[in-house]
Specification:
3 helices; mainly alpha; 0% strand
Length: 115
């Protein structure tokens, strides 16, 4: 019974790694995009100052890119972390229920559980 329960728990946890990885990695991808966007904004400032113009369109584009990538990273990360925590909790509850049910069955059959 313990082997069957362990197999079922492994099956339930199979996709949790993917969800957990998305939740952990997404903010860093968003942060990377933020760095790229801010770098682009600074390069635009540098280019506009060397040309003597006050063109801020490039700066706005870089800042917009930074904000969009940050938001995208959070948009993926927050639901992923919520889903991971929910499903991880459900797997733990199911594992506990399987263990309790197995112990009940052993008690009903009068079989001592091996330790």
């Amino acid at each position: 019974m313990e082997e069957a329960a362990a197999d079922e728990v492994a099956l339930l946890e199979k996709r949790l790694v993917t969800i957990g990885t998305l939740g952990n990695v997404s903010p860093f991808i968003g942060l990377f995009g933020t760095v790229v966007g801010v770098t682009y904004a600074f390069l635009s400032i540098s280019a506009s100052q060397s040309m003597g113009s006050g063109d801020m369109a490039g700066v706005g584009a870089g800042i917009a890119q930074a904000l969009v990538t940050t938001a995208a990273g959070l948009f993926v990360a927050v639901p992923s972390v919520i889903a991971f925590n929910y499903y991880n909790s459900m797997v733990s509850k199911m594992a506990s229920e399987m263990e309790r049910g197995g112990n009940k069955l052993l008690d009903m059959l009068g079989i001592q559980k091996e330790k």
